[in-house]
Amino acid sequence: MSTCPLTVAIAQINPMVGDFAGNLAIAKDAYRQAGAQQAQLLVFPELSLCGYYPGDLLNESTFIRKAYEALAELTAFSTQFPDLVAIVGTPIRANGPGKPLYNALIAIRNGETIAEYHKQLLPTYNIFDERRHFEPGQQGAVSIDVGGYKVGLMICEDGWNDDADDYPVNPYEALARMRPDLVVSINASPSNIGKRAQRQQVICGAARRHGLPILYVNQVGGQDSIVFDGASFAVNADGEIAREWPAFQTVIDTLRFTEGGFQTIAQSAQPQIDNDQEFILQHILLGLRDYVRRCGFKRVVVGSSGGIDSALTIAIAAEALGPENVIAITMPSAFSSSGSVSDSQLLCEALGVTLYSYPIKALVNDFGGQFQSSFNDELRGLSLENLQARLRGTILMAYSNHSGAMVLTTGNKSEISVGYCTLYGDTNGGLGLIGDLYKTEVYRLSAYINQRANREIIPAAILTKPPSAELAPDQKDTDSLPPYEVLDEILKLLIEGKQLAEREYQQAQEFVTGYRASAAGEAVYQRIVGMIARNEYKRRQAPPIIRVRPKAFGAGRQMPIAAKH
Q1: Degrees (nearest 5) of the Cα angle 177, 181, 187?
Q2: 310 in a labelled binding site
Q3: Which of 82, 410, 517, 552 could in theory staple to 436 by disulfide, Cβ–Cβ 3.0 to 4.6 A?
Q4: Where does L-glutamine bind (predicted)?
């Protein structure tokens, strides 16, 4: 180990899948900043040249060609900084049997590749599907020399198997035998509630057990339904965190590494987000901003029912995009309460959001009359209820087509779980902001937004009114569902189970066990089990939702539609 300090730069960046030109520009800017700070080592996240995760774009020869061209351009660019070693993630072609690619880490210095490491552990669970495209690396531990320090290399999942429970290989064992001075791990680790603490527990534990200082560099940004929080950190060999960078922000920063461990030299450490509600809010804000920007939209439109779900969606959208880029439409029917319109008006006035009114009573009557004339039968009951939702969905989509604003769907996880929503109606849209929040969480986050602003953004009337779809006379959600305080605990156990944080899992398990002790409670529980299973077809056709919790609907929960339960 050298006696001179090693200056290391971390590039906690926000790459976009397939945007090789944009990602290269970000990488070059990071190079310049690192060079200006006289860094000797620059660390980028996993697959940072192509963005994480490309999915079946990895099967396209054009995509791989562009990845190689981007790597070549960055390698040539590195000659401008001859004393700086950069570690970058990119797909690399594999030779021999198996999948055609490696998820690779490339170390570049002065126009040359000085090392190549292939990810050994490929996650294929929850939202991950890397074994679909990549072959596991077989080369064992790899290190490079930077400034007289031996630096071991690792990619994301490689650092999560120190107990050897999930894979037969534990990359730490080979690294420990190599005895590097420092281990660098490049990552694309998605964010969810509890993930930051879980990451630190795993990585700090491994550092302590093996006596290895670890620099953990993570990407930031929203990619479809997934949000990456960054929150990169440096941990010393004793397992203590020496430096952590902020969540949900891009960061280029430097620190020193010596025989005594990591030392901060540039910016002072910034406080982390330890408030659960603020974490959820910042997570969704970033997810929405990047989704809208990357899909080419500037504005969004939301159906405003005067209820809590649409109110929270509008409030988040206004903060993320600016109120001038949010349109709300109230669409009262014969069954809408007076508050449906007035509460929407109060909300939009508080936010500075434009609100339009498009009553649907006449449309419903006209449709019902034509239905009677065509089919010689009256439109009533559930068909009439769903018609109202579908007319509203059609109006929103018409406005979207006309104005170019993307529709935000407003369903929460409780309703989506049991199918308490209408296909081609309130499920219409390009993205769901609160689809991974249970109804009780929707209320908590809404109250927090008011508290955070120190004023009433979401009107008290919306926070206190009984939830209702308002599709029938005097309708309440509790006509069809148990109270959300009951439903949500059942859903947490059935959908997420042991993927919940330990305390949340124990609370849900204790509550549900007690609730099922009565015959009536058991009947409700079994009914919920059936509703979840029967409504998979609705979830399959719904828009993507921003993943917030450890297990969300979408890629993280793959269930058949046609199955016996």
Answers
A1: 90
A2: yes
A3: 552
A4: 125, 189, 195
pLDDT surpassing 70 at residue 265: no
**By three-state DSSP, how is residue 326 classified?**
strand
Percent of the chain at pLDDT exceeding 70:
97
Q: Say whether 343 counts as a known binding-site residue.
A: no
Q: Is the dihedral of CA 104, 70, 251, 283 positive or negative?
A: negative
Q: Is the dihedral of CA 527, 532, 535, 537 positive or negative?
A: negative
Between vectors from CA 502 to CA 547 and to CA 53, what angle results, nearest 5°?
30
pTM of the model: 0.95
Cα of 169 vs its chain's centroid, Å: 28
pLDDT single digits (tens) 91-144: 999 988 899 999 999 999 999 999 999 999 999 999 999 999 999 999 889 999
Q: Is the pLDDT of residue 470 over 70?
A: no
- The C-alpha atoms of residue 166 and residue 266 are separated, in whole angstroms, by 38
CA 442/CA 179 separation, integer angstroms: 49
The residues that are catalytic are: 46, 119, 156
Rounded Cα distance between 374 and 322, Å, is 46
pLDDT at 275 over 90: no
Using alpha carbons only, what angle is made at residue 506 by residues 502 and 508, rounded to the nearest 5 degrees?
115
Q: Is 59 marked as binding a ligand?
A: no
Structure tokens at 564: 């016996």
Would the annotation count 31 as a binding residue?
no
Average pLDDT over residues 354-360: 96
Helix axes 519-534, 502-515, angle to 10 degrees: 120
Say which residues have a Cβ less than 8 Å from residue 520's Cβ, sequence separation at least 6: none
Token pair 């509203």 is at which residue? 392
